[in-house]
Design a protein that fits this description.
Strand order of the largest sheet: 1-2-3-4-5-7-10
Radius of gyration: 16 Å
Distance between the termini: 18 Å
Number of helices: 7
Order of helices and strands: EEEHEHHEEHEEHHEHE
Oligomer: single chain
């Protein structure tokens, strides 16, 4: 496996093997919460994929106990209106770049995929998860809505009723419920994912 990390990437690990690029979000102590730096790095990784003919499949995963626990609330607290807009714009740019890739993009989801983490998974063409994965849009508990395009992508994937249930209740669902609502394509035992 060829490690493609550069000095510019502090929050992602990139490994290329047999034309498959594995991008691993690498903030395990923060449960891979998405901060501005990570969003910018996701956008940079997607740009690299666009330019690299060696990459034919992209897999996105998370280091540690979670795929992604959402936006980094610690960074969001105290943002001015302009700073909050810049944060949301960074998420939209990064996720649109993933969404627009011409190669298959697979999310390998374990642990939590909440808020922005779920929104990132929704940008992927295929979503695979471990049997203990949890999915949700808990933003309603903070008095906000999903901020990186989830209100648009989620209904396209699971239908309006399931999307409204996830978004308006904020309650997470497990892997089997996610499979039933077609949020994920397949569920694997934890050790096999």
């Amino acid at each position: 496996m060829k490690n493609l990390n550069t000095n510019a990437l502090e929050n992602l690990k990139l490994d290329l093997e047999n034309h498959v690029l594995i991008v691993t979000m690498n903030r395990p102590k923060a449960l891979n919460a998405l901060n501005t730096a990570m969003l910018n790095e996701i956008e940079m990784a997607a740009a690299k994929v666009e330019r690299d003919p060696e990459v034919r499949v992209l897999i996105i995963s998370g280091e540690g106990k979670a795929f992604g626990a959402g936006a980094d609330i610690g960074e969001m607290v105290g943002l001015s209106r302009a700073e909050a807009k810049a944060f949301a714009d960074a998420g939209h740019r990064a996720f649109k770049r993933i969404d627009d890739l011409y190669i298959p993009v697979i999310a390998a989801i374990h642990g939590y995929a909440l808020g922005g983490g779920l929104e990132l998974a929704l940008c992927c063409d295929i979503r695979l998860c471990s049997e203990t994965a949890k999915f949700g849009q808990p933003e309603v508990g903070l008095g906000i809505t999903p901020g990186f395009g989830g209100t648009q992508r989620l209904p396209r994937v699971v239908g309006t009723s399931n999307a409204m249930t996830l978004t308006l209740t904020g309650k997470p669902v497990g892997a089997e419920d996610a499979l039933r609502m077609r949020l994920v394509n397949r569920v694997y035992p934890d050790a096999e994912l």
